[in-house]
Design goal:
The chain has 3 helices and 5 strands, in the order E-E-H-E-H-H-E-E. The chain is an alpha+beta fold. It has a 5-stranded mixed beta sheet with strand order 2-1-5-3-4. 32% of the residues are buried. The protein binds FE2/S2 (inorganic) cluster (FES). It comes from Chelatococcus sambhunathii.
Length: 106
């Protein structure tokens, strides 16, 4: 298990237990975390699971693969720390991860 904290655009934060091997998107959906829609179910083809990775975590999480980068073009208010949460797999190294959801999804 790894703890993940989701902060919404208004600053409200929720910390949940994530299963190792699940994605950050799946974890949010499982725990009814608002702000992540995930319309395509994790296929990297909707950009509605967009999150901002906390500055302290960007290096550990790493950057997007080319396919994800292309999809991020469709996300709302993309920033250098933007990722699609369905493409971030939870590992023990991500215990304590903090992500923020954007004001709205694509
Ligand atoms: S759930 Fe569709 S791109 Fe992540």
């Amino acid at each position: 298990m790894a703890k993940i904290t989701y902060i919404d655009a208004s600053g409200e934060s929720r910390t949940v237990e994530a299963e190792i091997g699940a994605t950050v998107m799946e974890t949010a959906i499982r725990h009814d975390v608002p702000g992540i829609e995930a319309e395509c179910g994790g296929a990297c083809s909707c950009a509605t699971c967009h999150v901002y990775v906390d500055d302290a975590w960007t290096e550990t999480v790493g950057g997007p693969e080319p396919m994800e980068e292309d999809m991020l073009d469709f996300a709302y208010d993309v920033r250098p720390n933007s990722r699609l949460s369905c493409q971030i797999k939870v590992t023990p190294a991500l215990d304590g991860l903090v992500v923020t959801t954007p004001e709205r999804q694509a």
